[in-house]
Design goal:
The protein is built from nine helices and no strands. It is an all-alpha fold and 187 residues long.
């Protein structure tokens, strides 16, 4: 396996040093994902900006969690599923939502299930969803803005999930208690 360095404020490329300092200030540590992304300053900056933009989208905390964890589970991200479990807890998202997302079981309400279904369709069809998928999403009470905000959330998750796959980023200590493994669907 090709090893990717977990950078800190001393070893990071110059353009990443301030970004890592911000991460440390915000999180009390440098998350492993940020430490890996620091190798490519534009990726780290783009990820941080995309995260901020998605956090400020029209989705509430439950809906943000549905988009994030749907992508994380679909991409089988060993790092992001536990990390977003902790984030969901900090955001006071109902544990039933998190459990359903992690285990790929039905969500507690139809609206959230519609969001997961649409997000999965977008992921699996790489954005080439048919009109009926979009209409079903809209009929569930979502807006055209939110159709596009799903794209924003997926974009953030592609950056992190793919980076973690390449680097096999170690799960951060605070997230280890939420360890997750892809469900075994073989018989």
């Amino acid at each position: 396996m090709i090893e990717f360095q977990l950078h800190n404020e001393e070893t990071a490329p110059e353009d990443s040093k301030a970004l890592l300092a911000q991460s440390k200030k915000q999180h009390g540590m440098i998350p492993g994902l940020h430490a890996v992304m620091a190798e490519a300053p534009g990726l780290l900056e783009g990820y941080r900006l995309t995260h901020e933009l998605f956090m400020n989208s029209s989705f509430d905390k439950d809906e943000l969690t549905v988009v994030w964890q749907t992508a994380n589970v679909e991409h089988a991200c060993h790092y992001c599923v536990p990390a977003h479990t902790g984030i969901a807890k900090a955001m006071k998202v109902d544990d039933a939502i998190t459990k359903a997302l992690r285990n790929e079981t039905p969500l507690p309400n139809a609206r959230l299930e519609a969001l997961r279904t649409f997000t999965l369709a977008m992921l699996r069809e790489r954005g080439n969803v048919d009109e009926s998928a979009v209409q079903t999403f809209l009929d569930a009470g979502f807006t055209k803005r939110q159709v596009l905000e799903v794209v924003l959330g997926i974009s953030q998750k592609v950056m992190s999930n793919y980076t973690n796959h390449l680097a096999q980023t170690p799960v951060d200590a605070p997230s280890r208690k939420f360890e997750w493994h892809e469900a075994d669907t073989t018989i």
